[in-house]
Amino acid sequence: MSQISLLILCAGFGKRMLDLTIDTPKPLLMIQNKSLLSNSIDFFKSFGCNEIFINTHYQHKQIEKYINKYYDNKNISIIYEPEILGTGGAVKNIFKYTKNKNLCVTNVDIFWQNQNRPDIANFLEDYNKINYCKILLSKKNKFMGLSKSQGDFSLQNNTVKNWVKENDILYYSGFQILSKKIFENTPEKFAMNDVWDKLIYNNNLTGNLMNSKILHVGDKNTFDKL
């Protein structure tokens, strides 16, 4: 497979981690002797993601220092956002720095594990063929660290729809592949949900369902249990 580009979203304040992120950015919190950021980098590098971007804002100098210390690698680029661009704006911004037309995006607060490898390998198979956006979804009973009574989406024959009450509860896993073209006529700062809504309306948002369990380190309560 040709070059795979990846963005690891790291600009947020991590407020749900409470006191843990007063002095430390969430991506550098340690779990099982590994930072969340290194977990994402090392996991996706093993799949051939050989162009990695990290967007930063909060405590950005700590993240830069960390990457310089542990990853002396020209294939990792830190993109500092003086003002947070939102989840959509952050992704759109990365296309200024890559020649690739498609991009993988992961939330840094997913702690990827070996059991997730078959799901990710399957998801990446058509990386270069994604014309709009494909998201990875998880059933509620396989999503560790998150519990809510409403789903994020529903899935009908690999086409993603908005969740309604009678649907199975499916959560967004925190990983997606998207095409540059879906950001045409979008502002500088916006949420990814705005783009997803338009894609859903036009039946252009597709999805895969994970078979393995996934661990989301979304708040301090989850972190403390690890």
Summarize the structure.
The chain has 226 residues and is an alpha/beta fold.
Can you put this structure into words, describing what you see?
The chain is globular, with a radius of gyration of 17 Å. A seven-stranded mixed beta sheet has the order 5-4-1-6-11-7-12, with helices on both faces. The model has no long low-confidence stretch (mean pLDDT about 95). It has about 230 residues and is α/β, with parallel strands linked by helices. The longest helix has 11 residues.
For the structure shown, list the relevant keywords.
alpha/beta; 226 residues; globular; seven-stranded mixed beta sheet; 6 helices; 13 strands; 24% helix
List the helices and strands and how they pair.
Elements: E1 4-10, E2 30-31, E3 34-35, H1 36-45, E4 49-56, H2 60-70, E5 76-80, H3 86-94, E6 102-107, H4 117-124, E7 133-139, E8 143-144, E9 153-156, E10 159-162, E11 170-179, H5 192-201, E12 205-209, E13 214-215, H6 220-225
Parallel strand pairs: 1-4, 1-6, 4-5, 7-12, 8-13
Antiparallel strand pairs: 2-3, 6-11, 7-11, 9-10
Helix pairs in contact: 3-5
